[in-house]
Amino acid sequence: MRQIAIVASILAVAALLAVGLTQTGSSSRSDRGPAPSAAQTAASLARSPGPLAALHAQAARLLPGGPKAFKDRLAALRGYPVVVNKWASWCGPCRVEFTYFERLAVADGRRVAFLGVDSSDSASSAAAFLKQHPVSYPTYADPDMEVAALFSATVAFPTTAFYDRAGRLQYIHQGEYLNAAKLRSDIARYAG
User: Does residue 101 lie within any of the structural domains?
Assistant: First the structure.
């Protein structure tokens, strides 16, 4: 299973590189800046509604519980749109787009729920990555891609899923976001 995920990631990277060679300026200056500081994050997310504040209280934590815990969390977030980012510490494209999620989760975290799903990865590698790249939301450990299967994300790395306020899956973006503007646009369109 992990070999299939690695091959799929390599193919996705090759496709993205091919697209990148034909496009210029796909990344803006603002995409390359530093992630929000802890103080900026705390100020931006202060007074978040209860279910979103509960996410922020588990910031950058790797949570156990598999599909049941993930489904329970989605149920608890009904009434809020949810953005789910499936990633792995070994995935180059995941690492590139992670800063976009860090920034947008802080900017939109008082109205949109963000969740991570770390698939086909070791807990120690994922925890080390989250320590280097803390986000304002938790990530569910998914070593066997059982959580990813819930939103049809078992092939591409990374994959982002968008749920509406009623908890219905609206859109799945397979592959890397090449810039924060495209991610921001999809959040507005599918999780607005």
Answer: yes
Write out the two tokens for 80.
């809020």
- pLDDT at 21 > cutoff 90: no
Q: Note the pTM of the prediction, 2 decimals.
A: 0.82
- With a cut of 90, say whether residue 44 has pLDDT above it: no
- Phi, psi of 82, deg, nearest 5: -130, 135
Q: C-alpha angle with apex 2: 6 to 100, nearest 5 degrees?
A: 55
**What's the total number of domains in the chain?**
1
What's the mean pLDDT when you consider all of the chain? 86
| 112: nearest Cα among 103, 121, 104, 122 | 104
**Within a domain: 30:** no
Assigned domain for 179 exists: yes
The three-state (H, E, C) secondary structure of 95-158, written as one string: HHHHHHHHHHHHHHCCCCEEEEEEECCCHHHHHHHHHHCCCCCCEEEECCCHHHHHCCCCCCCC
Q: For position 104, which CATH number holds?
A: 3.40.30.10
CA terminus-to-terminus distance, the chain: 34
pLDDT at position 37 is 78
Q: CA of 41: how far to CAs of 1, 37, 38, 62, 77, in Å?
A: 37, 6, 5, 19, 21
